[in-house]
Amino acid sequence: MGKFDTEKIISECLKAAAYGPFFIDEAAGDDKYWEIHTIFGLDIDELKKIADKYPDVNQKNESVKLAINNSLNNLLGYPHQCTEEQWDKYISVKPDKLYEIFKKWRKEN
Questions:
Q1: Residue 16's Cα: distance from chain center in Å?
Q2: pLDDT at position 27, please?
Q3: From its phi and psi, is residue 102 left (phi > 0), alpha (psi between -120 and 50) or beta?
Q4: Would the pTM of this model clear 0.90, i.e. be above it?
Q5: Residues of the chain where predicted confidence (pLDDT) is lower than 50
Q6: 51: burial class by Cβ within 10 Å (0-12, 13-18, 19+)?
Q7: Contact 74/39 with Cβ under 8 angstroms?
Q8: Contact predicate 90/15, CB 8 Å
Q9: How far apart are CA 34 and CA 11, in angstroms?
C-alpha cells in the first residue's frame, strides 16, 4: 500500500472519529462527545480541525500525532458498537488492513 493510500485511510479514520457514530454518546444529552477528550487527549473541536485539514497538517505536532494514533487505535479497539455497514460508510479498508496500517504508522512515528 503506497503513501497516498495510507494518507487516504488515515484521513478517513480521522473523519470517522470526528464526525462518525463511533464515539458519540446519544444518551448523554447536551454533550454527546463527552468521552472524546478522555479517549483521545483532544477535545472534539481539535479533532475535527485536524480531520478537516489532514494531510495538510504538521505531522510532527503532538496534537496531530495524538489524533492519528488515537483515531486508528480506538477505531480498532474501543467498544464503539458500530456495525460493519457503518464502518464501511467511513473507512474503505477492513479492520485487519487498518491494523496493518496502524502498526506501520506507529513504527514510523
A1: 6
A2: 84
A3: alpha
A4: yes
A5: 1-3
A6: buried
A7: yes
A8: yes
A9: 23
